[in-house]
């Protein structure tokens, strides 16, 4: 599983437009092959900062979404609303070795 987090900063006057884009596209994103989870977070201290948090079966599934027509519509519309560059990263759950209790 691949977890993708994208931090998005908007001009205050563009937050409503972003939320509309997200609401109109979230169900379609969730239906993309390999998408297992999608949610939107809002920064606790800065109401114009949001993060998308998604889970993908594989990096290939995320890449396929990023090459899709849906992404080709959603991302440019969202990107036009930014007031700062986005910060995106992918992570895997850590597989820590089991420890023996003393």
From TrEMBL:
Which controlled-vocabulary keywords does the entry list? Monooxygenase, Oxidoreductase
Q: Which GO terms describe its molecular function?
A: monooxygenase activity
Q: Which domain of life is it from?
A: Bacteria
Family annotation (Pfam families): ABM (PF03992)
Signal sequence span per UniProt? Answer: none
Q: Does the keyword Protease apply?
A: no
InterPro entries from the UniProt entry? ABM_dom (IPR007138), Dimeric_a/b-barrel (IPR011008)
Q: Where is the ABM domain?
A: 2-92
Keyword rRNA-binding set for record: no
Q: What is this protein called?
A: Antibiotic biosynthesis monooxygenase
- Origin organism of this chain? Hymenobacter amundsenii
């Amino acid at each position: 599983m691949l977890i993708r987090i994208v931090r998005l900063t908007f001009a205050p006057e563009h937050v409503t437009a972003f939320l509309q884009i997200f609401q109109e596209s979230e169900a379609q994103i969730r239906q993309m092959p390999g998408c297992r989870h999608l949610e939107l977070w809002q920064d606790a201290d800065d109401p114009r900062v949001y993060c998308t948090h998604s889970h993908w079966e594989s990096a290939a599934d995320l890449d396929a979404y990023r090459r899709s027509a849906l992404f080709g519509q959603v991302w440019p519309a969202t990107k036009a609303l930014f007031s700062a560059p986005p910060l995106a990263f992918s992570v895997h759950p850590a597989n820590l070795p089991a420890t023996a209790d003393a």
